[in-house]
Amino acid sequence: MTVNSATARYEGLGKTGKGHVATKSGVLDAAYGFTTRFEGAPGTNPEEMIAAAHASCFTMATSFQLAGAGFTDGTLETTCAVTLEKDGDGFKVSKSALTLTGRVAGLDKAQFEELAGIAKKGCPISKLLNCEITLETNFQSA
To answer: Cα separation of 135 and 142, whole Å?
Structure first.
């Protein structure tokens, strides 16, 4: 079992509050708040961090699916777009849209799509999310 952690602090309340989030590893150390989440101010927001987590987890899962199928060389790049929408008096994450571009020597498009689909379902972050998850693939011949 692996346990990782992050800490978030929010000073002030509501729209005027200012937040700070940091990971134990120190890789993430950023400001967040209403303006970074809804107004495009510098800093991060929870949905951006979910998108980063989902993109990186899914890409690694796809890499392992490909390695398990005997492929040894390639490049994968995933963009993840997380949608936050109004839900009654609050908000909810309603969708995580993965777009995978891959170039893998000796692989064909059909097998690429099949293995990426398995990775989408098996990725730990996909299993965590309670929203619609979509996958678009862009296969490039190596």
So the answer is: 21
Q: How far apart are alpha carbons 119 and 135 in whole angstroms?
A: 10
Strand partners, 29: 22
- Give the C-alpha separation, 122 to 64, whole Å: 11
In this structure, are residues 102 and 75 in contact, taking their beta carbons and an 8 Å threshold?
Answer: yes
Cβ neighbours of residue 2 under 8 Å, at least 6 residues apart? none
**pLDDT computed for residue 82 by the predictor:** 98
What is the per-residue pLDDT across 8-56, written as a single tens digit (0 to 9) for each? 999 999 999 999 999 999 999 999 999 999 999 999 999 999 999 999 9
CB 37 within 8 A of CB 93: no
